[in-house]
């Protein structure tokens, strides 16, 4: 299952060596040796020297340019790596991974606009390239192009119907678009995947990111609990982050105690080690998310 990263929710995994011919080209043969010694800078420099000789001899060998891109990325030369990957793809439009890897390098360099162009190129070249679809979705989401994010994550979901991360990302995209009906349908898929989960990590997961938005300088991650039974649960937790660091939260809480008291939902807040509940914000039935969100935003503005 694809990792869900907190700071950069992208699958920054360079694609493997392209396999098309029964016998490796000269460029791919050099690349395989370099990959086996990728932690040895001297071996990488030697591979680059050999690959430079190959492309000088045969400038149209796409595999050699692809290999140069991989080696240059490992040598921490992102601009040159992207140029090499772009050249490989220009020479051979079947090399979807060349476009994908260029996108990975660009995303890692914080160049999101350029990255999504490459991810889309990879997906056009290989419509079954799920990582390109997923990363394009994340790239567009980060650029606040939520409709395109939803399209790419829908594609990723079709390519891998059991992929939990694509499913939850689609919920976030629809929430950002204000398409509540679509979001709730996508949410049903998230809960179904959780219920059927066999992956130990997903089995143990207590909540997932349901929504994201900004409040001034703060970025808010909204977690929704899968199970609100037991002693204490946060039905929704509006986690407040500043510069990627959590600093507190506003929560819709429920517990066995308050359920016994007949008012099972109450608003709470965590800042540091201090936990506060608000008696004037309690409900006998679970309030609508949009109403809780509005109250949470007011509390965040007043308290953080």
Topology:
Layout: H1 26-36, H2 41-57, H3 62-74, H4 78-91, H5 96-108, H6 112-125, H7 130-142, H8 146-159, H9 164-177, H10 180-195, H11 200-204, E1 207-215, E2 218-225, E3 232-242, E4 245-255, H12 256-260, E5 265-271, E6 274-283, H13 289-303
Antiparallel strand pairs: 1-2, 2-3, 3-4, 4-5, 5-6
Helix pairs in contact: 1-2, 1-3, 2-3, 3-4, 3-5, 4-5, 5-6, 6-7, 7-8, 8-9, 9-10
Provide an overview of this structure:
There is one protein chain. The protein has 304 residues and is of the alpha+beta class. The protein folds into 2 domains: 26-181, Serine Threonine Protein Phosphatase 5, Tetratricopeptide repeat (Alpha Horseshoe); 207-303, no CATH class. Helix content is 54%, strand content 18%. The chain is built from 13 helices and 6 strands. The protein has helices at residues 26-36, 41-57, 62-74, 78-91, 96-108, 112-125, 130-142, 146-159, 164-177, 180-195, 200-204, 256-260, 289-303; strands at 207-215, 218-225, 232-242, 245-255, 265-271, 274-283. The chain has a 6-stranded antiparallel beta sheet. A hairpin with a 2-residue loop joins strand 5 (265-271) and strand 6. Helix 9 (164-177) packs antiparallel against helix 10.
């Amino acid at each position: 299952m694809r990792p869900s990263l907190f700071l950069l929710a992208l699958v920054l995994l360079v694609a493997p060596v392209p396999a098309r011919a029964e016998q490796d080209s000269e460029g791919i043969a050099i690349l395989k040796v370099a990959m086996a010694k990728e932690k040895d800078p001297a071996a990488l420099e030697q591979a680059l020297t050999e690959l430079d000789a190959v492309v000088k001899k045969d400038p149209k060998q796409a595999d050699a340019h692809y290999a140069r891109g991989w080696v240059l990325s490992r040598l921490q030369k992102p601009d040159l790596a992207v140029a090499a990957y772009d050249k490989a793809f220009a020479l051979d439009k079947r090399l979807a991974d060349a476009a994908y890897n260029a996108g990975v390098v660009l995303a890692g360099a914080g160049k999101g606009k350029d990255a999504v162009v490459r991810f889309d190129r990879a997906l056009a070249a290989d419509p079954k390239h799920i990582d390109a679809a997923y990363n394009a979705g994340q790239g567009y989401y980060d650029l606040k192009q939520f409709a395109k994010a939803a399209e790419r994550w829908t594609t990723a979901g079709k390519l891998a119907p059991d992929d939990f991360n694509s499913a939850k990302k689609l919920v976030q995209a629809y929430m950002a678009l204000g398409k509540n009906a679509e979001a709730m349908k996508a949410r049903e898929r998230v809960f179904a995947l959780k219920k059927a989960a066999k992956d130990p990590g997903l089995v143990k997961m207590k909540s997932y990111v349901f929504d994201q938005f900004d409040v001034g300088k703060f970025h808010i991650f909204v977690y929704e609990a899968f199970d609100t039974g037991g002693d204490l649960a946060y039905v929704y937790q509006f986690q407040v982050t500043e510069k990627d660091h959590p600093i507190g939260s506003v929560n819709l809480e429920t517990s066995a105690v308050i359920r016994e008291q007949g008012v099972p939902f109450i608003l709470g807040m965590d800042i540091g080690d201090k936990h506060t509940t608000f008696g004037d914000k309690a409900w006998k039935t679970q309030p609508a998310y949009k109403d809780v969100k509005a109250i949470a935003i007011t509390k965040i503005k007043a308290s953080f």
